[in-house]
Every structure is written in C-alpha cells, then in structure tokens.
Amino acid sequence: MLIFNAILLIIFDFYIFFALRATKIKVAKTKWFSFLWWGYTIGLLVGLYISAKYNIPLAYRSIILVAFFMTAVSKFIFILILLVDDVRRGGVWISRLFSPQRSKNLEERVETLSEELPEEPVHGITRSEFLTKSGLVVASLPIFPLSWGMISGGYDYRIRRQKLYLPNLPASFHGMRIAQISDVHSGSFYNEKAVLGGVEMLLNERPDMIFFTGDLVNNVASEMRQYQDIFAKLKADLGVFSVLGNHDYGDYHFGREDSVAKRKNLADLIETQRIMGWDLLMDENRSIKVNNESLSIVGVQNWGTGRFPKKGDIEKALQGTEDEPVKLLLSHDPSHWRAQVLDTDIDVMFAGHTHGMQFGVRGEHFQWSPAKFIYKEWAGLYEENSQQLYVNVGYGFLGYPGRVGILPEITLFELVKGDKPIV
Fold it and tell me: Is the pTM higher than 0.85?
C-alpha cells in the first residue's frame, strides 16, 4: 500500500507540474518553484516511509498522514480539472486530423479577420489557462474543511439516543439502557485528554450494559498501552461486552498468512480486553438475567462480505439460545446482516465498521455520506420485517485523523417492550 501511494503521488505531481509549467504563470517557471515542488513531495514520501516502518510518536505520524491526505485530495481534484482541458484539446486535435480542409478554412478566416482589425493588446486569458487557474482555486478548497475536521471533528463526541422496540422483550428489561461504541482505532489517537472526555461522557449516562463492536486497534495490540487505563474505566452493572473487528486480527500488519507473531498479537489483544474487564465474545453468547427473566447477548468474530475476513460462526454463536425471547447480536461489519443474520432469529444486530467514511452530513432526519455507495446500511437504525440493525459510525478515526460532518458517536439505546408506534 505504501509503494502504491508513493507511485500515485509521483504520477499526480508530474502531471500537474508540467501542466503548470506550460501555462503563463511566471512563478511556475522559476527554479525555486521546482525545488519547493519536488522537495515537498520527497519530504512527504520520506515521512510516509518513516511513519510506516518506525515507531515514531503518534502526533508526528498524524501530521504526516494529514499532510499526505490533504495533498492527495487537492491534487486529485486539480487533475480532474486539468483532464477536462486535455480532453477538450484532444477533441480539437482529432477534429483537425480528420477534417484538415475545415481547419484550414477556419485558419484562413481568422487570418483575414486579424488583418482587418486594428492591432490592440489582447486582454484576458486562454481557456486552458483559465481552467488551470480555476483548478488551483478549486483544488485548495478541501483544505479548509479537512483542516477543521482535524482540529475539531475527530474528538467532538456526540451522544445519539435511540429507542429499540421489541414485542417479545421481558418486562424486567423494559427501560434498560445500553451504550454502544465502536471502531476505537487507538493507534490513530494523539489526544489522551479528549479520549478520556468521551469515555466520561458515556459513563455519565450510567448505562446498564455497554457494547463495543470491534476494531480496538489499527494493526497491533501494543497500540492500546497508552489508552488501556482509559477504556478500563468503562463499567456497567450488567457488563461490558465486545467483539473483534477486521483490524484486530493484525492482517494489515502481519499479512493474511498465519504466523507465530500474528497469533501472539491476537492473544495480546484478547488479554488486553480481559484486563480491562470486557467480556469478549468469540462466537458465543451470554444469558443476562433480571428478576428471573433473561435475554441473550450474542457475539461473533468479524464476518464481512468482499475482501474482509469471514471468521465469525453465527450458528455456533447461537447455540443454546433457542429458548431466549430476545437475542441481541454484536457483529462488527453491517454487511453481515443481509448476508447471514436476516436468516436467523436475531432481534437486533449492533455493528460499526463504516465510520460513515468520516465525511458527510448527518442530521435528525437526513444523512448522506459517500459510504452509502459502498454499504447499503452505513449509519443509524435499519429495519426489515421484525429485525433491526444499528450501525454506529465509530468512536475513533482511521487514515484521515479527523471527521467532517460525521462526528464520533456514542449511542445510547433504550429497550422498550412493545411495537414501534406508527407515526
């Protein structure tokens, strides 16, 4: 992935650099512009290599990732605009190639007209130069929201409240409150105080149970050392239950193949959750009893469609729950819901994974994100027949160290006995 990113950035740079040199922008033709242009690119690539290969402080790593992300986005937008002009010029060239007589007549008309007109200085710019300069302006626009998303959005925790109507809910569980967080990605954090603030915000709600739906780390278990004590503060009377996400297995660091180092890393992550007091469910379930009534908490390992790991075993996880009136499932990837869960008697599935792409719009009655083009269910509550799915957009962030519009989420559910009111 690092090599691919480096090659892509270099291709972007060559294309834009020579496009700028071909314009009448005087600055682009100077030697110092060349030094700055290529010096920045080389410095950014060196920074990416160092951040990927060495254990540098998270703050520096985040700065490098932000610089790369913002540079890549801006240059990609600029290239799209330059391509418009290149396509236009290519069309003109093809037209002249196949209609030489028409082009010749047009040139003769232009020459005759120019002889008739008085010689005056031409004001304005060419279409190509206009597109190039416009591209520079448009390409710089993402810098502002992305900068704000990094400064403010990444740790701007919001509590979203959601009632879950369950006709078969035992009366003893009516009014019970469950908090959910997901996708911590502790390896991306660089502000311990802000992370602690979010945990305290959750605890102030005094939930009866807490669910964590996967991706505690980015790559390796050691990322939790700095934040273990903070998340160990999460306590609830009926327990804290968790499952693994696709990042928790170490595939993106150790590779997909099995190895001693990879197995040890997973064992360390499991031990970390045990030390924090979390009940990690590995294709298993727990019966929660209140006043001689019960419901079942079911948890599976990661299972996702496409390229994501399919480690979870839903049938194994449901063994022994046949007589439970209500089953609540923790499964990291929302694509699991349509692929397998809808064929079971699970009442509600709790998921994460999408992050809402950390970019979009989310209001009371409207939400939009590019994530909708990848996941049919990407944020909030979904229902089909009598089954429900809730997708939490995540507590942390990955790649881009911030959020724009799709803010970090703590979900607080209230279980309600009965059917959902018809609005």
Answer: no
